[in-house]
Design goal:
The chain has helices spanning 18-22, 45-68, 75-84, 87-102, 106-127, 130-141, 150-165, 172-202, 217-230, 242-251, 255-266, 278-294, 300-305, 313-345, 358-370, 374-377, 383-398, 484-502, 520-529, 532-538, 550-558, 564-582, 592-602, 620-623, 633-651, 657-668, 676-684, 691-696, and strands spanning 204-207, 236-239, 401-404, 415-420, 426-433, 445-450, 453-454, 460-461, 464-468. It is mostly helical and 726 residues long. The protein starts with 17 loop residues before the first helix and ends in a 30-residue tail after the last helix. The structure holds zinc ion.
């Protein structure tokens, strides 16, 4: 689900830290760990600050040396030198970012609040360094007449655009203002994230035996263990973590408790307490709008999207609107089915179906229409079997293998694998961290502790990658048994991991891809998860080893379009919310709730029984996760991934090696060495067709005129450097 912008670049902002600087610090040494993974066990919170300090000052020295050269600017002495600089800083920042997301504590949160603005300042100091920009510009202006190759031209263009998008062409006064804005935004975004985390952890709902009578045994067991762990006042504890919340909403017949927990979920960051995010949202939108204007854009959305495949907010809205109407129509049909059942439970005239009823009645309809009870099939989806299934899929498609390894870990629940290429050469290390903990953010993501990179001697250093989830825990009597949603999430994150592992590019600056392209490698993997060919390979009963029965496979597939009206509506609603608030051209104080209500329910006739997947006060993707004006990335990339999967279908073999080879060669290994549309066409031979996405969501209507090809202006740049992907 999410990603963090990699913070690149610094002046020594830290005050005297000589004492800390002199202590032994793992970041000051060459790591002698197996495969050079971070020595997690010896990294302490107090190591980060001196490490950042030294890394930023080293980076500054490297930049100063580039500027001080007397030779004329060349690709090698300026662009390539910049690309090589800041290595220690990215090593420290990568580990810090991953640990803050997966295993934070008060000390780290405080540190994050302090360091992120300093990194923003560091970044700006480099991108607004005039002497440096003069050199970059000189190379940029002569790039086409010099003897440099396509990668080098692209890197030069990307770095030049990075400077321009960061304000290099602004007057001194405007540059100073922009620096201030960036620093403030960075601090606000950290506070936003910490508030959401606190609000997630602050709510617990305790219930007694009678109140959990309708729940499946596995859900009860998990809630009982949670209550024991919290040592709270009740027998069963439910929290706002999705793995606790969603099963409760799905199975609990206690309507008032459903309301209580769902309201608590919806009100996170909106409780008028110290963790309230409404003012932070106002401040961020005000500052982002001002920033966009300074840089010559009408709105922040226009600024962000100009650098993506979509190129303009208009192209984004066109896609969102195209999906919106049919999604609402479907959702209305779904609601009608559920209302019948609801009325049987609540025959009073004034009883109204509410948003906290949706999961419960949807599950009833699903059982009735498709005889699919997720609890009955969960035993076929143990975490271990599912992971092994994914390993086997990667082996079948790409010939790669996975071998458990003993390496340092940051928590005893983390496991690690060495990934081997088809010739058994080392491809990288992959960590898994599966279950919710208090110090972990919500959702699931994949990121890296170290990017792949080429050393100055021409050798390639392999990446170290981590997948982090919040999946159902094992209980004392059963292993972790996944929901279908968790199963596809694992395939998704694994796709990001494959992308990191396969990337093979010479320059660091060519690793990142456009934001609306980044979910293609992840989402394409989801397509395999529930196909019968694939299910038969991994969905085996955790106790008996029995392969999942055909009748279950049929039911899973028949129900694949089930509730898609709801899923699509809540997804597109969040994407619209994001685009709307970032399309503001002149900021005036925003009533956050009113803004959402007007935009979605008043203007776009959203069903009152559905909430957007994220409401602003806890929309971490866009206020603390690097998806601002970018939540649409998922649906945009879905056009790509569904169409790309068709390439496999068309061969008649979902595991076709030649197609998989092409996917690896043209897309997964290429990083951002070309723009997304060029990479896509190299794989598919043509631009993507939207119809596969619409069909997969059950929203397809035969068009009167052919408008299925996605019209995009290919962008040649990509400045969003992504690190953490959800
Ligand atoms: Zn993702």
């Amino acid at each position: 689900m999410k990603r963090l912008a990699v913070i690149l670049l610094a002046i020594s902002m830290f005050s005297c830290k000589e004492q800390a600087e002199q202590l032994p610090n793992p970041f000051f040494e060459q790591w002698s760990t197996p495969y050079g993974v971070p020595p997690f066990e010896s990294i302490k919170a107090y190591h980060y600050e001196p490490a950042f300090e030294r890394a930023m000052s080293l980076h500054n020295e490297e930049i100063a040396a580039i500027v001080a050269q007397s030779e004329q600017p060349t690709f090698e002495n300026t662009i390539a030198a910049m690309d090589r600089s800041g290595r220690m800083l990215s090593d420290v920042a990568n580990v810090f970012g991953m640990i803050c997301a997966a295993e934070t504590n008060e000390q780290l949160q405080e540190l994050e609040g302090k360091i992120m603005p300093q990194l923003a300042v560091h970044n700006d100091a480099i991108l607004m360094n005039e002497a440096l920009f003069e050199r970059v510009k000189a190379v940029y202006q002569t790039r086409l007449s010099k003897d440099i190759d396509a990668d080098q031209i692209r890197l030069t263009e990307k770095i030049y655009d990075d400077f321009v998008r960061s304000g290099a062409l602004l007057s001194g006064e405007n540059k100073a203002r922009l620096k201030q804005i960036n620093e403030e935004l960075s601090a606000l975004s950290v506070r936003f994230g910490s508030n959401v985390l606190a609000e997630n952890n602050n709510f617990v709902m305790y219930l007694d035996d009678k109140q959990v009578a309708s729940l499946p045994a596995s859900v009860k067991d998990a809630a009982k263990e949670k209550a024991a762990e919290l040592e709270g006042s009740g027998k069963y504890a439910f929290t706002l973590h999705k793995s606790s919340l969603i099963p409760f909403l799905t199975f609990s017949s206690e309507r008032s408790s459903r309301e209580e927990i769902y309201r608590a979920y919806l009100n996170r960051g909106n409780n008028g307490n110290e963790y309230d995010n409404k003012q932070i949202i106002n401040d961020m939108i005000r500052l982002r709008t001002e920033k966009a204007k300074l840089l010559g854009y009408k709105s922040y959305a226009e600024y962000v999207v100009s650098d993506q495949m979509a190129a303009t907010p208009k192209a984004v809205y066109t896609l969102l609107n195209e999906v919106w109407e049919p999604a609402l129509d479907r959702a209305k049909e779904e609601l009608a089915d559920m209302t019948e059942l609801f009325k049987r439970d609540f025959p009073q005239d004034d009883a109204k179906f509410e948003s906290w009823d949706w999961w419960y009645y949807a599950e009833k309809v699903r059982q009735q229409k498709y005889s699919l009870n997720e609890e009955n099939i969960r035993p076929y989806f143990s975490l271990d079997n599912t992971r092994q299934g994914i390993f086997n899929l990667a082996n079948r498609l790409f010939g790669i293998t996975f071998r458990p390894v003993n390496v340092p870990i940051y928590h005893n629940e983390v496991s690690a694998y060495e990934v081997l290429d088809k010739d058994e050469s080392h491809m990288g290390i992959l960590y898994f961290d599966f279950h919710p903990r208090a110090g972990k953010g919500q959702g699931a993501w994949c990121g890296y502790y170290r990017e792949q990179r080429y050393e100055t001697d021409g050798s390639r250093t392999a990446p170290v990658v981590g997948i982090v989830c919040n999946f159902t825990r094992p209980t004392s009597s059963t292993p972790s048994l996944l929901t279908l949603d968790e199963v596809t999430t694992l395939f998704h994150e694994f796709g990001h991991a494959l992308h990191f592992l396969f990337t093979d590019v010479r320059y660091n600056g060519l690793i990142g891809v456009e934001g609306d392209f980044v979910e293609l490698p992840s989402q394409i993997m989801e397509n395999w998860a529930l196909t019968s060919e694939m299910l038969r390979t991994y969905a085996t009963h955790y106790r008996t080893g029995e392969v999942i029965r055909d009748q279950y496979i049929t039911r899973i597939q028949n129900s694949s379009l089930f509730n898609q009206g709801f899923n699509t509506t809540e997804l597109i609603a969040a994407a619209l919310s994001d685009m709307d608030i970032h399309s503001i051209e002149n900021y005036t104080s925003i009533d956050v709730d009113g803004f959402e209500y007007n935009a979605l329910y008043q203007s776009r006739a959203m069903l009152p029984q559905i909430e957007p997947r994220y409401k602003y006060p806890y929309f971490a993707h866009i206020f603390s996760g690097g998806y601002s004006a970018g939540y649409y990335f998922y649906i945009w990339a879905e056009v790509l991934d569904k169409d790309a999967f068709e390439a496999f279908r068309e061969t008649g073999d979902l595991f076709d090696r030649r197609t998989a080879d092409a996917l690896r060669r043209e897309i997964l290994s290429k990083g951002g060495s070309r723009d997304g549309m060029s990479l896509y066409k190299a794989f598919r031979g043509q631009a993507p067709d939207k119809s596969a996405m619409l069909k997969a969501r059950g929203l397809w209507k035969e068009p009167e005129v052919d408008s299925t090809q996605m019209v995009v202006k290919p962008t040649i740049t990509d400045m969003l450097k992504m690190k953490k992907l959800n």
